[in-house]
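quick one before i forget lol
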Amino acid sequence: MLRKGFANKEPGGGTAKRESVVKSLTKALDLLNYMGKQRHAVGVTELANEMDLNKSAVHRLLQTLEASGFVDKNPVTRQYFLGPRLFVLGKVYENTVALRGLARPIMERLARQLGEAVHLMVPARSEDGWPSLILLDKIESTFQLTITPNPGAVSPAHCTAGGKVLLAFAMKGALDHVPEPLPRYTPHTITDLASLQAELAEVRRLGYAEDREEVEVGLTCVAAPVFEGEQVVAAMSVSGPSSRLEAPRLEVARQAVIAAAREVRNLLT
């Protein structure tokens, strides 16, 4: 779920700078869309004419895109075509859609079994660079009292059960250059890296993570990793009011989400 001062935080630089960046990004995306419709490599002159831009502007955009792998250049003809980075991103999207489709029936069954909300999350970074996660899918709780973000919502990784799973298994190195203290959301949030790293080691040992009111007072969550082969590609979690997810009900939820995540893994292999 989005938090004030986290995913909504805007980078510095002022309105004019942001508008300039957005315009350049829009032009780069238009350029990629045009190239994607062609059956041949294209040159700077053709792109400049089609995009109604001067050649120097097109050349700068192409250099930036080439440096990131989004376009490639024929060294002989000096014409451009779509690069390998787009293929990689396309495969990520394809795998994400497949993951959601495979996991959803299992998530629905888990939600019926426990009555609590079930979430599927993948790694990301917030706009201001903090390690985070994106909610890929959710099944609502059957109870009237529930706390659930919507798919696409960004949450901090260090204080959520799903985020801890992803930090422990899929985002190694994500905390290497994170400044301390970590953002605090409740009195229970872990804000020092040493304590967080110790907890992540425990998550790897146990195979699951918990969040007991670390991102929101009154909310408890337990999550397990979803493997594809030997790689963790997502986290699945069960969350609900702390008043409902107390022992022994929390233990039931823990075992159920671990089993559900394992079931998704079996479908992915």
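fyi Confidence is low (pLDDT under 50) at residues 1-13.
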